[in-house]
Amino acid sequence: MMLLSSYITSVLIITVFATISSGNIEHTVLRGVPSSLQSKYAQLKSFACLDGSSTIPFEYVNDDYCDCRDGSDEPGTSACPNGRFFCENKGYIGTSIPSHLVGDGICDCCDGSDEYETSVVCNNTCFELAQKSRAEHEARRILHEVGVAKKKDIMVKSIVAVSARKARLLELEQELQTIDNELKEKEALKQLAEAPESEAKEKHQKLWEEQRAIREAIAHDNQMREMFADIDTNNDSLVSIEELQKHTELDTDQENEFTVEEVRSILGADSVNLDEFNVTVFEQISNSYQKLPQPSTEAATHLEEVTEKIDEALKQEEEKKTTTTSGTEGYYEEDTNHHHDDDSDHHHHDEDADHHHDEDADHHHHEETITTVATSLDHGKHIHDDTVPQYDDETKKLMEIADHARNEYNEVERKVHDVKRQIEDLRKQADVDVGSHGEYSAFMDQCFDYDEREYTYRVCMFKDAKQISKGGGSDVTIGYWDAWTGPSDNKYLKMKYANGATCWNGPARSLTITFQCGVDHKIIDVREPTRCEYSMLFETPSACDEKIATTIIHPNHEEF
Ligand code: MAN
To answer: What are the structural domains of the chain?
Structure first.
């Protein structure tokens, strides 16, 4: 009995732990069972289905009849539709295939173990596959090794750059303090220089305005006197109704006669003297008034005499005003010059204009009488001449001093701005996350282009990304620097540029860059998998992995 049972056991062991010699294929484990589950199949009396649904006699395992619901009793046959067959693939990587592929006449396992019971002869390709895989792994490892060397270089440079930046920042902050103080000093000096300057300029302006007012008043007076003399044809120093009545242009009602009553209502009396004319009549008629045709020679001589008298009176008045305004010589002299220049133009243009001739005659007359004082009688010109005369030498000197102080202040202010901008730039740079060890610091201020059929894509690291149409038209911003968005265990695998130009009827454009190890920094692909959401594949040494670079797979590595 003992002998029989030990015989049966031996037969079972031989059946289950078949050592197959089919080609070079050799099984040392229970057929179709991965080594991790071998212990579950070690009992020789009974087998518990792996899902725990039932327990069956051990001889039912791999008996080509499906007993367990999960198919776990038939790991080495195709009996269970949901079963998995484990190819041991010795020398390579063990794989699990659906058990219905077992014995189907096609070699699915590289060791051919799935076809153990068919006549198909499977070549064992596990060795070849292992070799290929090892070569691939080695190529990858070398890539990472070269990349890591470059990455380390970048990291070292980053450390140097960070400390240089810190030192520069300190230097700039100190410089800012110094030039800020300098700026305060320059500002005080500027204010000191500007106060007398603006005082002198104001004085100049005031003086100019006063003079203009005087000129205007004199011009007004002159005009009034000329008009009075012109109307007073009998030279009795009175303007009578009869005299004014000749000026029919003053008749507001041109259809009818210019009646005595109408004239009286203008004069307010039967006749008016110069003062009354000035107060009540002049303003009323000055707009419509026109000179009568040339007076007789006698009258003209008389008019000249009267004008001379008036001129003399005006000259005295003007001189009086000039002496009461101290330091104004410059103004008048300049003004007189100005006047001369204007006059020469005047003559030139008015040569053949008769009605201007009289005015010109007046002009000459006044120039002769008044030489050192800007003549008010040249009213037509001065009233409308609003050009402020040149500043006097003292004011000019003050302006020069103030200009100098302003220039000095501006120069220091420019320096302050420049230093502040540099500080700001450096602080912004320091705020950029360039990797946990500065491995992405080489990207700082760098842009990269990628050409495809329709567009050039340009990414300026930590700034923005653009889509530049090759057919012309304006660039489209597809995102502004947003954040690193890789998974929590590899944050620096991806970066995102968000809030780009909004798509018509769609989202704001955005770009995600995925980094992979490469010897150089370069974009290798850009796509738009979803409308207006772009994805870029970017090779860079910064993404190379030291672990991969140092993991050498030996031919006998257990993985294979
Ligand atoms: C442009 C480009 C495309 C984008 C469409 C959306 O043509 O920016 O990439 O898909 O606009 O309208």
So the answer is: 170-293+391-430 (no CATH), 441-550 (2.70.130.10)
